[in-house]
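Weekly modeling sync, notes
Attendees: AB, CL, MP (scribe)

Item 1: holo prediction request
CL wants a bound-state model with zinc ion before deciding which constructs to order. AB pointed out that an apo prediction alone won't tell us much about the pocket. Agreed to run with the ligand included and paste results into these notes for async review.

Input as submitted:
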Amino acid sequence: MKKFLDDNFLLESNSAEKLYHGYAKEMPIIDYHNHLSPQQIAVDANFENITVAWLHGDHYKWRAMRGNGINEKFCTGNASDWEKFEQWAATVPYTMRNPLYHWTHLELQRYFDIEEQLSPATARKIYEECTEKLLSKDWSVRNLLRKMNVTYVGTTDDPLDDLAAHQKIKKDEFEIKVNPSFRPDKAMNIDSVLLFNEYVTRLEVVVGKTITGFDDYIAAIKSRHDYFAENGCTVSDHGLEEMYAEDYTEQQLKNIFENVRKGNNIEKIDAVKFKSAMLVYFAEWGFEKKWVQQYHMGPIRNNNERMFGIMGADTGWDSIGGSVNIKAIAKFLNSLDKNNKLAKTILYSINPADNDILATMAGNFNDGSFPGKVQLGAAWWFNDQQDGIIQHLKSVSNMGLLSRFVGMLTDSRSFLSFPRHEYFRRILCNLLGSEMENGQLPNDEKWIGSMVQDICCNNAKKYFNL
Ligand SMILES: [Zn+2]
């Protein structure tokens, strides 16, 4: 019997071991999309204990705890940090075969050199050992990134963010590059009239100008796009329940904007027209600046209205939606391509059934200008687990070029999530290694090893122009 989570974890053949240890393991990590706090990096924060680092903000763990019958008090409520950790430790043995079980123990090993499994019996000792380490400078957030050999961090930022934290990080000459991504979801979500108007009011303050109509609005948002570019941003990211590609006229956009500014609710079709237009503006600005654009599509969010009312978004009440509206995606990409304004594009769907659909759609818009210019994004969120990663790699292989895939990302809110890159790399090496062993791939360790290194790091480096 193999030891749990040993050096050859997930590696089932000699070739897989050679690929992982000889090629993948030491490659730097380019985490081009995540939700880490640039403020914490700017001040090089230390976490006060393992609960703060691990459980605050981690809706994956909260969902597991809720599923295990743990009271909300211990997830997001007012229990003490130790009590929350105790309940998480009690839950962990019940998470076997959920990726959390692997992630938890990889994280304990890689960051804290703890080989034991977390359970009620080990909870106190592990809590104290991790907390003691986290309080020392060697475990500050910058050092957590260094420990994992991270060389690039792409955060996710609202257009109204002042990017002061990013400026501070650059001023410090921190050797790990940390850049913002332009995520303008709130700037297009016009169907929530109250929130949209609040957003426009904040935008007026940020740009120091009164916004009296749609043209002013576009000019103001564009100035934030320019500001992000001045601050090192080269990527936009869009969180969409679905793709929007409805026809519209300039006059319609002006009317819709005016209507909402008067506080009126608008028809659904008008909201879709407005969102469609905003996506085109963002895409064209991104193309002019040679940015990469990413579209994260399909989750249905805040399904539990009662809990959303209590704790707001991103607290663990989201799930996989139906298939993406692929015709709208085709129409959107096609209109940009026709006008010669299609930037490098990564398409993600939360629904694993969309992998083949999106991979083949991406292939329609590769024009020979850059390897993998339009591609299917990595297994995301609920799909970031062994089966989901394999399914994704198979789609990319069968429908496109695995060798040109820009690789994994954490998409995480936690500084302790970086072993997910290792998890991905092991799965990738195992897949390729097993096919070398059984003669489906040639025994060309050098070439396949270099392909592994490209997928782990080099492709992203070139794609994101780092
Ligand atoms: Zn994300």
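Recorded for review: The longest helix spans residues 268-288.
Action items: CL to compare against the apo run; MP to circulate these notes.
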